[in-house]
Design brief:
128 residues
């Protein structure tokens, strides 16, 4: 069972991000109650940055679900996960569980690809 945990996490992340991307595409989602959170969301919408995030979530969610380019999808989604966690911990505290679940799923899924990521963590990689 533990050996399948990275795959399960990858699939759950894929479902989450694919659903989130589709939700943004359909215009679903209510504004948060906090005025600062509303300002942040409106800044994303008005700058059209939300469109880029939507496309990244759709493509990377599909990649995670299929397993094609999954290690790359995890790397590309990492900054989005950081912003989501920051948002839910500081501006939308009512939904703080998402700030815990997403990183746990990300790290668990990435653990399945640890041999691919380890060379990135070398201070002075060998030239090759």
């Amino acid at each position: 069972m533990l050996a399948k945990l990275p795959m399960i996490s990858r699939i759950l992340l894929g479902l989450l991000f694919l659903a989130s991307g589709i939700g943004k595409l359909m215009g679903a989602g209510a504004l948060p109650a906090d005025p600062a959170a509303q300002s942040f969301v409106m800044a994303l919408v008005n700058s059209h940055l939300i469109s880029i995030v939507m496309v990244v979530e759709l493509v990377c969610g599909a990649a995670l679900l299929t397993g094609f380019f999954a290690p790359l999808a995890l790397v590309v989604l990492s900054p989005i996960v950081v912003v989501i966690c920051w948002f839910h911990l500081t501006l939308d505290a009512a939904n703080w569980p998402m700030a815990v679940v997403l990183p746990v799923l990300m790290f668990t899924a990435a653990h399945g690809y640890r041999t691919l990521y380890l060379p990135l963590l070398q201070a002075r990689p060998s030239k090759g």
